[in-house]
């Protein structure tokens, strides 16, 4: 999803330029979303309609569904929150924003007074012709980028979204060169950036769990997008435990960051089984793995050196999830058995 904003002083043709850009991108076959920001109150509904009455009665969110669907929310949402929510609606190629000049997205300006470091082009909205709009769309294709905090390009020497966004705006870095992030995370309405490893790790964990479910019962055939909402969640303290991973009885060298992720994941999985209150160490062994087929694989779980009896369903979740986790580490050899030990330092 590439984001660009069109900003300028009042009566400088922002809306007309926004419409032209949306039209051009749509003609090119792109799926386009747009956002309009106003300093004045915007009311999409009409007085005395049924949905208007819902809102007047006190509903904080009203959804009207007919030939189209609209959402009427009393609260003013942060732009990044809106952009994140758009990912739930559809796979948009572009989001064209009219306004929001204080945000850090590539800007096309219609008046010189609003020029800043995020400006990629100044345009006279009243004189621009079709060729100019086409060239502008070309620029948007090259310089637009996703939500800033979701940008990662570790292989390019950058380690934060702001630096990466700047390089894209200046034409020094292509979006295609960024890490391919497969998962997006929001905590308490704030977008949290995930690099490729964490993104893949989260994705594979969830896919591992989902693979144990009978999705046919819910009418799910092909998985295209997974959405997870976890409400009323309290943060857990960081776990100070050492993790050792053996693949085919050979110790796997992992850095502290990867170790922390595996430690917390294994600890969370075991805690969900509620084996005992004070788990000091965890031992997991998965054997008889054939390729990616875990049907005949066996799993042994111990906590505090005591075997834990787990049913077939839980066994399946643990096997699939742990195998998915290990696969994010890009192991070259075929995996036949996995041993993981999590213990206090």
Explain the overall architecture:
The strands form four sheets. This protein has a six-stranded antiparallel sheet with strand order 11-10-15-12-13-14, covered by helices on one side. A five-stranded parallel sheet has the order 2-5-1-6-7, with helices on one face. Among the domains are: 2-37 and 77-144, P-loop containing nucleotide triphosphate hydrolases (Rossmann fold), CATH 3.40.50.300; 236-344, no CATH class. It is built from eight helices and 15 strands. The chain is α/β, with parallel strands linked by helices and 345 residues long.
In brief:
By secondary structure, the protein is α/β, with parallel strands linked by helices.
List key phrases describing it.
345 residues; alpha/beta; Rossmann fold; 6-stranded antiparallel sheet; 5-stranded parallel sheet; 30% helix
Overall SS class: alpha/beta
Strand order of the largest sheet: 11-10-15-12-13-14
Most strands sheet:
6 strands, antiparallel
Shape: elongated
Instruction: Give helix and strand order, one letter per element, not per position.
Output: EHEHEEHEEEHHEEHEEHEEEHE
Which helices and strands occur, and which strands form pairs?
Layout: E1 2-7, H1 14-27, E2 32-36, H2 50-57, E3 61-65, E4 69-73, H3 79-89, E5 94-98, E6 107-109, E7 119-122, H4 130-143, H5 161-169, E8 185-187, E9 190-192, H6 196-210, E10 241-247, E11 250-251, H7 256-273, E12 281-287, E13 298-303, E14 306-307, H8 312-327, E15 338-344
Parallel strand pairs: 1-5, 1-6, 2-5, 6-7
Antiparallel strand pairs: 3-4, 8-9, 10-11, 10-15, 12-13, 12-15, 13-14
Helix pairs in contact: 1-4, 6-8, 7-8
GO biological process, one term: Mo-molybdopterin cofactor biosynthetic process
Domain Molybdopterin-guanine dinucleotide biosynthesis protein B (MobB): 3-110
Protein name: Molybdopterin-guanine dinucleotide biosynthesis protein B
């Amino acid at each position: 999803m590439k984001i660009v904003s069109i900003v300028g002083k009042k009566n400088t043709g922002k809306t007309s330029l926004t419409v032209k850009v949306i039209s051009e991108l749509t003609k090119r076959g792109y799926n386009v979303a747009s956002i309009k920001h106003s300093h004045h109150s915007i009311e999409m509904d009409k007085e005395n309609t049924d949905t208007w009455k819902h809102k007047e009665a006190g509903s904080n969110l009203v959804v009207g569904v007919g030939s189209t669907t609209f959402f009427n929310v009393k609260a003013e949402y942060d732009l990044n929150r809106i952009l994140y929510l758009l990912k739930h609606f559809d796979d948009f190629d572009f989001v064209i924003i009219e306004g929001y000049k204080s945000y850090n997205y590539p800007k096309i300006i219609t008046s010189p007074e609003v020029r800043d470091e995020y400006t990629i082009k100044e345009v006279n909205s009243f004189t621009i012709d079709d060729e100019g709009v086409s060239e502008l769309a070309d620029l948007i294709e090259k310089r637009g980028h996703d939500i800033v905090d979701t940008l990662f390009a570790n292989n390019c020497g950058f380690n934060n979204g702001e630096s990466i966004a700047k390089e894209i705006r200046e034409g020094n870095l292509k979006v295609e060169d960024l890490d391919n992030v497969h998962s997006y995370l929001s905590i308490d309405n704030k977008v949290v950036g995930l690099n490729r490893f964490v993104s893949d790790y989260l994705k594979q964990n969830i896919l591992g769990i989902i693979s144990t479910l009978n999705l046919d019962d819910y009418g799910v055939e092909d998985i295209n997008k997974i959405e997870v909402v976890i409400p009323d969640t309290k943060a857990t303290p960081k776990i100070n435990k050492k993790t050792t991973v053996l693949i085919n009885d050979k110790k796997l060298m992992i850095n502290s960051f990867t170790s922390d992720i595996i430690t917390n994941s294994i600890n969370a999985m075991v805690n969900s089984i509620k084996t005992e209150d004070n788990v000091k160490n965890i031992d997991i062994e998965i054997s008889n793995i054939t390729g990616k087929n875990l049907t005949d694989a066996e799993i042994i779980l111990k906590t505090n050196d005591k075997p834990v009896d787990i049913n077939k369903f839980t066994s399946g979740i643990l096997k699939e999830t742990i195998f998915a986790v290990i696969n994010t580490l890009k192991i070259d050899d075929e995996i036949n058995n996995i041993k993981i030990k999590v213990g206090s330092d």
